Amino acid sequence: MNPDTPKPVPAEGQALIKIHSFGLNRMDLMQREGRYQVPPQAGKILGVEFSGSIEGFGDGDHEGFEIGDEVFGLAYGGAYAEYLASSTKMLIRKPKEMSWTTAAGIPETWITATQALHLVGCFKPGDNVLWHAGASSVSIAGIQLAKAAGAKAIFVTAGSDAKVDFCISIGANAGFNYHTEDWVTGILRATNGYGVDVIVDFIGKNYSQGNFEAAAIDGRIVQLASLSGGKLDAGLDIGLLENKRLRWEGSRLRSRPLEYQQKLRELLVEFALPKFADGTFKVMIEKEFSWKDIQRAHELMESNQSKGKIICHVD
């Protein structure tokens, strides 16, 4: 919104996108506060997911896109803007029946959930899955992805009974309010002591021991964030890692190379895009704002009350 900021010039392999809408993500808050390690190609402008139309190209391969195409996609940064230069390798054609709002709410969350479940978590049909922060946008996507892929049971943790009920309404089998319930005990009881095969965690420090206890033999724990802290307390029983043969792997999508992100784009297009078209998959929208009200949008995300995407429109 700074009138002195020049329109970006697309480099080789990039398209110039006129932004219609962009989605908010918790990393935006952390980046704003200086608590997020930003990749060097990101720049200073926030925002990684967007919908818009192509206005031009740099040199090189255009991946079959043309000027005027309506697209949505993922960027290393810079989506809080009127224009964005983005690699064509991370663009997806927007179906005519899909709204700009829905399209802007897909890229970061659904690609992250796909990566966590399939590429890092090595999900297999019949696995039990646990999504922490169940009402977060990534976990909302993940619940739907796991259900469609044949999960035996899907569990969530969340900070209120209303959020737990919401997660169950979109496909989770059971959920646990971490303020009032022992989620480890609940999961082991629900699985007759078996546990969960894939855990996707955003919490970190406060949940690490519980993850070890709730994981099944040969379980996979995918660490996407550490909202409760990254430095673990003394007393963490890593013997469970050995005894259960657990794999605990960290991942951050934004720092991945372009070719890796392109592979995830192609997985999303092949497996998820048709399910958006037929209504199987849904992008849950909490609230829409004008980008001029970005402060209010950030305040809503900071309140931890939302259940779904917060989208801003460039007007």
From TrEMBL:
A Pfam family this chain is assigned to: ADH_N
Top-level taxon of the source organism: Eukaryota
GO molecular function: NADPH binding; oxidoreductase activity, acting on NAD(P)H
Domain Enoyl reductase (ER) residues, every copy: 1-312
CDD domains: p53_inducible_oxidoreductase
TM spans (from-to): none
Gene3D superfamilies, per database record: Medium-chain alcohol dehydrogenases, catalytic domain, NAD(P)-binding Rossmann-like Domain
Keywords for the protein's UniProt record, in alphabetical order: NADP, Oxidoreductase
SUPFAM superfamilies, sorted: GroES-like (SSF50129), NAD(P)-binding Rossmann-fold domains (SSF51735)
UniProt name for this protein: GroES-like protein
Organism the protein comes from: Coleophoma cylindrospora
